[in-house]
Amino acid sequence: MSSRLGIQDKSNNTQEMLCPCCGETVLCGAPQCGCGARFVGEPLDEAPIQVERLGPAMTCVALLALVVVAALVATKWLAFAAVLVMWSAWRALQLAKQDPGWYGGYKTAAATLSLTIAGSLALAAYGIAHVPQAFENYKLRQVAATQASIHHVASLLAEYQLAKGSYPLNAQEFKKVIGDSLATDYWDQSIKYQPRIGDRADRSIGMTGMPADNFELRSAGPDGIIGTDDDIVMRDGVLFTNSEVKNQPVVQQFR
Q1: Are 2 and 41 in contact (CB under 8 A)?
Q2: How far apart are the first and last CA of the chain?
Q3: What is the distance between the alpha carbons of residues 247 and 232, in angstroms, rounded to a whole number?
Q4: Of 195, 145, 138, which is closest to residue 169 (Cα–Cα)?
Q5: Count of alpha carbons within 13 Å of 146, Cβ hemisphere only?
Q6: What is the Cα–Cα distance from 239 to 255, expressed in whole angstroms?
Q7: Is 144 within 8 Å of 138 (Cβ atoms)?
Q8: 85 CB contacts (<8 Å, ≥6 apart)?
Q9: Are 24 and 33 in contact (CB under 8 A)?
Q10: Alpha-carbon distance 151 to 250, whole Å?
Q11: pTM as predicted
Q12: Mean pLDDT over residues 133-149, rounded?
């Protein structure tokens, strides 16, 4: 018997209940039912039992783990999804504050929000510090793409030279052979072709009737102007750096 109800001490208790064994009506003060069943505890309270809901708090934790894994495996740009994690953690905090009886996980949500904010600030600082390097890498990719196009044109010129014995005297002649325009650089500007005569030839006599034994390919670079420091040049199959290009004059006016 439960001492809190004092059922065995109050034999004059007239409150009735159903015996859970036989279903007969029994006074709450009776020590046992006629079927022999004895009271071992107080009757269950009929008030509903409230269980804390941890769903919102666990959701923000799961989102944080998902964003971290996705950013590491797929692409770092998915780290921007941390905004969704912060919103979910903030919502879990608000629910736990407004109704702590129904919603739990306040400390979990607070820790998740703090961790996400700290991580986002660290990533932002890292990204800002590496912005110059990112721009430099972007420029290098532009140059590399242009150099690849120049190498492609150079391979076509090598095939032409093997077949004809010399390089074409102008871009128009070269276009007739390849049946298309010259390749373009990264900035969609046509790569310029210029034949070159041997250094021992007298340039004052021009190129009429003389075979071209070398060539020059030139991209105008980002500014689109031939002859400036950002030109990308291949002469006689060799690519020059910008500092070397400044010391290499343009052989003739490009057309």
Answers
A1: yes
A2: 109
A3: 13
A4: 195
A5: 28
A6: 21
A7: no
A8: 60, 63, 64, 67, 112, 116
A9: yes
A10: 19
A11: 0.51
A12: 88
